[in-house]
Design goal:
Layout lengths: L1 E6 L4 H10 L1 H4 L3 E4 L1 H11 L3 E3 L7 H10 L5 E5 L9 H13 L4 E2 L2 H13 L4 H5 L11
Parallel strand pairs: 1-2, 1-4, 2-3, 4-5
Helix pairs in contact: 1-3, 4-5
């Protein structure tokens, strides 16, 4: 499966901790992330992550394009609800696309853990069937 990992500045430590805790599960899938988040995850976990631009520079939109083209299966986006973001319209558009295309979206640790546990059990395998993918593209689930 294709999994996007995104985090606002105040949540980057949280997403790195999440990726570290679930490294075994995440390693079996294709990972995508916005700029700094992807760099931190790669440096601190050793996971292979395809990096896009930083969120304010279009990374959220790049991931949104994958969602709109049925090439993203899960989005984990640790948002900072207490800080105004200069690219809020891009964030809203990404969340809207996840809703339009029924892509599971976690915006906090609790929901992300439920998704990752479901992924680990195989509960989300319907995503690859719906999107016409075998689930093992590039040798990964």
């Amino acid at each position: 499966m294709n999994i996007a990992l995104i985090a606002h500045d105040q949540k980057k430590d949280d997403i790195v901790g999440f990726a570290t805790a679930y490294k075994g599960v995440l390693a079996e899938h294709r990972l995508f992330a916005t700029g700094t988040t992807g760099s931190r995850i790669m440096q601190e976990t050793g996971l292979n992550v395809h990096r896009f631009q930083s969120g304010p520079f279009g990374g959220d939109q790049e991931i949104g394009a994958l969602v709109a083209n049925n090439k993203m299966d899960i989005v984990i986006f640790f948002r900072d609800p207490l800080t105004a973001q200069p690219h809020e319209p891009d964030i809203s558009a990404l969340i809207r696309l996840c809703d339009v295309y029924s892509v599971p979206l976690a915006t906090n640790m609790g929901t992300a853990e439920i998704l990752i546990k479901g992924l680990e059990r195989g509960d989300l395998s319907w995503r690859t069937i719906v999107n016409g993918r075998s689930g093992d593209e590039d040798g990964q689930k």
